[in-house]
Amino acid sequence: MKNYTSVYDIPDLTQWLNEARELKSNPRQHKQLGSGKTLGLLFFNNSLRTRLSTQKAALNLGMEVMVMNFGKEGWALEFADGTIMDGDRAEHVREAARVVSQYCDILGIRAFAGLKDKSEDESEQVLNGFIDHCTIPVINLESALGHPLQALADAITIAEHKTSKRPKVVLTWAPHPRPLPHAVANSFIRMMQQMPVDFCITHPEGYELNDKIVGNTPVFHDQKQALEGADFIYAKNWSSYLDYGKVLNRDNSWMITQDVLGKARFMHCLPARRNVVVEGAVLDSGQSLVIEQANNRTYAAQLVLKKLLETL
Ligand code: CP
User: Fold this and answer.
1) Looking at the 3D structure of the chain, how many domains does it have?
2) Other C-beta atoms within 10 Å of 14: how many?
């Protein structure tokens, strides 16, 4: 594995999930592996979990960490080639990526979708700009199209908490006042498509996701029908993909309540708006796995870092 940018970079998911469990049982067991190595983390967007869990993972492996809020503190970057840079953009990614590659051994980048221009978002110019010009491995800390560290943590969480061989997992759209990207949903879908689970998606009409990602996964517009018999309910808002970046409705009836949850376990990547996306009582109940998911972010990141360190 050269970079970790997508769940498709995982060569053997079953083996990785076993290894994640092993790492979690003794997180400092490989503390020599990262000795003398530096992880750089560049954030073009806000974060709590990704920032801290990835640092924690690196520290568990004996690495040193440098973090920069690039979106607020870095020079505005140019990504296009051949541009006359006489505007606001002071530095080209060609130099920035090669400079950072000298200071770090592995680089993580968070750069969300702008949700204004679908083709620009789908070009992943920040992530791909760094991958193209870095001379070190790059980890996707959530890009326009995917959040593969979150999806790996979600897979670890489901593997830990399932009580049957083939649990039913449902990804449900949930309301939110602001337009949110598709990255978490995309990576979760791709991950569930590779897991031994019965998986389906439910969302209101108009919230269809990229059909290249959804593929043959069943989609329901009737949330109640989709959630029947679910073992895990994963709630997530996303803005419209077809009417790109728009909030089409805020239908409160899609909020996950205790009634809707039934006997299922509740999952969400966090942050989650209480009593908008999910009833506070659900998050406070023993059925919620959101804190376990956030904990597993450390072991997901640690596994990815370990794999990359082993290639250096
Ligand atoms: N789930 C997640 O990525 O959280 P942060 O945005 O806080 O990093």
Assistant:
1) 2
2) 12
